């Protein structure tokens, strides 16, 4: 029965049918009647029967019994709900399985650009990262030999005075730190090292002056140091700016376009890798699920599934074909995972690059931004294109979970860095910290989802709870009525 009204109509029809029937029962034969009358009365049985207290059936239901029954149904709903929740913990284990295969999101860190200034990224040899030319240190030794007079002195670029070579430093006229903050952060390691070794940005100066100048702009520094020759410093400053222009545009508009172009290149690279990673992760997860389903079927029905006329190789082919069919059915999920990962990776790379025009961000912040965009894109997708059968409130509830777990994952990233720092020096410290951070993120996500289900901000669980309890009650009532009607029909009675 689909509803109470339909069951009521059926009972009414049954009563009508019974009332229209004639209920003439077959009478016993005269021989049977004489046999019954000739039997002696069992007075002992009659006495025992009337002495025994007859059972009394209480058909009344108290309020406490109703409450207890509803509480049991509510507990059943909660148990089923949390069984599903904790079943999702297999995603945590799958993510840990993906980590050694370089498919977890933390493995994208090698693709992240390092926005924080690091002098070593400029002064090492460009050949070590696939570039060409000499390192700054090699270039410094060459220039020192070329600039040294017969008596071992070198002329100061900023003052014109001569000092012994041991007292001189080869200064980057436009400091590396200044160049980095002016857009050098968007260059590759090879380009950074080429700029650091560019002789157009080099000038020998006395160690005392170089220590005093540090990362300051030469033009501004010359205004506060009377020892410097303004004519010389202005010429050196112009030469250095022209050298920097070869690598990074100086105009605001041109620099913004330059950063955006480089960011787009980063976005394509990171987006493609993140999309591929998400797709492979989804594919591997589906493979694991499909394989487990086959293993479960093998345990239940045997390896050959009752087909005893085939050999084990043929049975294995059938099992593998079943897994393949299940994977092919999930191709849309894999494609969707690639698109979501690629888009969030592309957008996060561009936003991060533009943000660094104003403030430097480390790799951890880059990862946090990437995770944030990935969670945000999934949440927006859930809201705009909710899975079939989800209402707006249910979609909002699921989107909240996605965003919340994204926050937990970012916290897990920072926790992982802290653990890595604490374990520094211990063998396999990075691997240990990665696994621990993954478990913290996974279990933390489960806890957050559990709490969101408890809070039920959109009233989704309350609605599901009501539908679950009403469904159980409906099925129980239907079953009891059908059993009663079957008994009545067998007895040939009416009601």
The main pleated sheet reads as:
2 strands, antiparallel
H/I helix tally: 19
The percent range for strand residues is: under 5%
* CA distance, first residue to last residue: 20 Å
Q: Order the strands across the largest sheet as they lie in space.
A: 1-2
Shape: elongated
- The overall pLDDT average reads 75
Explain the overall architecture.
- By secondary structure, the chain is mainly alpha-helical.
- Among the domains are: 89-113 and 255-445, no CATH class; 120-248, no CATH class.
- It has 19 helices and 4 strands.
- The chain has helices spanning 4-20, 30-38, 43-51, 63-87, 90-98, 120-123, 136-147, 176-181, 189-196, 207-213, 218-223, 230-245, 252-301, 312-329, 331-355, 363-384, 392-422, 429-455, 460-491, and strands at residues 153-155, 162-164, 168-172, 202-206.
- The strands form 2 sheets. A two-stranded antiparallel sheet has the order 1-2. A two-stranded antiparallel ribbon has the order 3-4.
- β1 (153-155) and β2 form a beta hairpin.
- α13 (252-301) packs antiparallel against α15 (331-355), α16 runs antiparallel to α17 and α17 runs antiparallel to α18.
List the keywords:
495 residues; mainly alpha; two-stranded antiparallel sheet; elongated
Please describe the topology of this protein.
Layout: H1 4-20, H2 30-38, H3 43-51, H4 63-87, H5 90-98, H6 120-123, H7 136-147, E1 153-155, E2 162-164, E3 168-172, H8 176-181, H9 189-196, E4 202-206, H10 207-213, H11 218-223, H12 230-245, H13 252-301, H14 312-329, H15 331-355, H16 363-384, H17 392-422, H18 429-455, H19 460-491
Antiparallel strand pairs: 1-2, 3-4
């Amino acid at each position: 029965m689909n509803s109470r009204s339909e069951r009521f109509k059926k009972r009414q029809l049954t009563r009508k049918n019974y009332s229209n029937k004639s209920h003439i029962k077959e009478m016993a034969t005269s021989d049977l009647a004489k046999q019954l009358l000739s039997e002696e009365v069992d007075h002992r049985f009659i006495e025992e029967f009337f002495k025994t207290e007859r059972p009394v059936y209480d058909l009344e239901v108290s309020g406490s019994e109703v409450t207890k029954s509803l509480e049991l149904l509510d507990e059943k709903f909660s148990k089923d709900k949390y069984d599903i929740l904790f079943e999702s913990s297999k995603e945590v284990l799958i993510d840990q399985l993906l980590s050694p295969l370089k498919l977890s999101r933390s493995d994208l860190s090698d693709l992240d650009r390092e926005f924080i200034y690091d002098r070593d990224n400029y002064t090492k040899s460009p050949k070590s990262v696939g570039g060409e030319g000499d390192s700054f240190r090699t270039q410094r030794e060459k220039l020192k030999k070329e600039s040294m007079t017969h008596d071992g002195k070198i002329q100061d670029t900023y003052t014109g005075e001569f000092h012994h070579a041991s007292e001189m430093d080869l200064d980057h006229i436009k400091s590396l730190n200044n160049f980095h903050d002016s857009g050098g952060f968007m260059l590759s390691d090879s380009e950074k090292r080429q700029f650091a070794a560019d002789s157009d940005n080099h000038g020998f100066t006395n160690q005392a002056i170089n220590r005093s100048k540090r990362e300051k702009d030469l033009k501004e520094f010359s205004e506060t140091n009377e020892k410097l020759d303004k004519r010389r410093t202005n010429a050196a400053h112009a030469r250095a700016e022209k050298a920097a222009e070869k690598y990074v545009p100086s105009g605001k508009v041109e620099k913004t376009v330059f950063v955006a172009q480089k960011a787009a290149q980063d976005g394509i690279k990171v987006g493609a890798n993140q999309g591929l990673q998400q797709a492979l992760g989804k594919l591997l997860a589906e493979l694991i699920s499909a394989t487990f389903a086959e293993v479960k079927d093998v345990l239940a029905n045997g390896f050959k599934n009752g087909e005893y006329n085939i050999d084990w190789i043929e049975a294995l082919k059938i099992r593998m074909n079943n897994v393949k069919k299940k994977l092919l059915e999930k191709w849309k999920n894999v494609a969707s995972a690639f698109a979501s990962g690629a888009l969030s990776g592309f957008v996060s790379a561009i936003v991060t690059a533009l943000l660094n025009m104003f403030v430097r961000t480390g790799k951890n912040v880059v990862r946090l931004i990437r995770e944030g965009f990935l969670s945000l894109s999934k949440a927006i997708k859930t809201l705009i294109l909710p899975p079939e059968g989800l209402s707006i409130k249910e979609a909002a509830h699921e989107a909240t979970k996605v965003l919340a777990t994204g926050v937990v994952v970012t916290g897990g990233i920072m926790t992982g860095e802290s653990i890595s720092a604490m374990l520094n020096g211990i063998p396999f410290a990075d691997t240990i910290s990665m696994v621990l951070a993954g478990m913290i993120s996974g279990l933390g996500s489960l806890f957050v989802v559990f709490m969101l289900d408890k809070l039920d901000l959109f009233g989704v669980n309350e609605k599901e709870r009501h539908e679950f309890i009403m469904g159980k009650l409906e099925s129980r009532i239907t079953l009891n009525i059908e059993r009663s009607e079957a008994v009545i029909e067998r007895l040939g009675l009416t009601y």
